[in-house]
Amino acid sequence: MTRSLARRPRSLFTAVLAAVLAVGLPGLAHAQDITPGVTAQSVFDRPGPHPVATPTVTNPCQESVAGMIAHLTVHLFGNRDDARCTQAFPYGLQSPVGVNTYYPADLAGADKAPLILFEGGITSNPGMYDTLARQWAGHGFVVVITYDFVNSLAYLPAIGLASAIGQHRDPGSPLFGRIDLGRTVLAGHSAGGGASLQAAALFPPIAGAIDPDFAVIGVLAIEPGPVGVGALIGVPTLFLTGYNDFVVPDFAWVRWWQYNLTFHAPAWIANARGVSHFSPVDGPGAYLSAGTAVAWLKYIAFDDDTARRFFVGPDWLLRADRTYYSVERNARADSLR
Which of 129, 142, 187, 310 has a CA 20 to 30 Å removed from the CA of 196? Predict the structure, then answer.
C-alpha cells in the first residue's frame, strides 16, 4: 500500500498535549495515549529505561587523519555533531577487525535480552554508531557491532553471532545466559545494511545448525547498500531511507530490488525528510528516523503495543508520520493484525 504523508494534527492543542504525553511523561506513553499527528520520533527517540554497559571507548574522530576526513565529510553533508571513533585502524592503531558489545547493565535473574547484530557502512568506524548502540541497549537489547573497515558482507554478522553465542555461554561473561538468541535482529547502515539483508537470506535456513536457540525475527536496513535482494528475505524488514541521501537514494536499488521484491515477508519503507546518508552517525536527537528504528525494534522483539500501532493495522501511524516524505508497506505487512 502506498500512502504519502498528508494528515495533520486535529488541533495545535492536540499536538502539544500528545507530545507532552509521549516525551514529557514517559510512564504515560502507552498505546491509548497516541493520537494522530504524533511522530515515532517524539515517542521513541529518547534514552531507554536501562543503564548501558560497554567496554567500548570512543574519542573525537578528528584525532586521526582518517577520522578528520570522516569528520569533514559528515559535516559537509549536514551532520550537527562531531563523530566519535574508536582506535580501530586506520582511525587508530588497534586491529581493524573486531567486535564491540553494548548491553543493559541491569540484566539479572532470569532476564534475557534480544540481540541486535549490527554492521556499519563501508570505511566507517564502529564508534560512529555509539549513539545508536547506546539507545538500543538502553531499550533492552544486546547490541553487537562487528567491523573490518570494509563492512560489506554477511561474514561480519556471522562473526558477531559467534561472539554473542560465546558471551552467552561463558560463565565469566556479564552476559552469561542473558542473551535471547531466539530474538535476533539483523541491522546495518549503508554497506552494512546490505550485509544485513544478505545475512537474512543466509542465516534462517541454517539457524538450527548454528545454535538450537537461534532465530532471526527481523531486519532493520538503514540506507542499505545494493548487495542484497528482497526476494531472498523471509523475515519482517524495515527499510529506512533519507530524502537527502544521494549515496543510497530512495528511488534506486533500495526500492527496486530490495523493498519491491520482498514478496515472502512483511516489509515497510520510510523515506525521511531532511535525512542524509550520514545522519545515522549524527549525535543524539539529530537522526530523524532514530525513533522509528526504536519503535521497529520494540515491535519486532517485544511486541510493544505502542510500537505496534506505528506499523500494524488499518490505522497504522507511520503512514501519517510527518517526519516522512513517503511511507509504504507491502501486501504481507498490510494483512497483519
Answer: 310
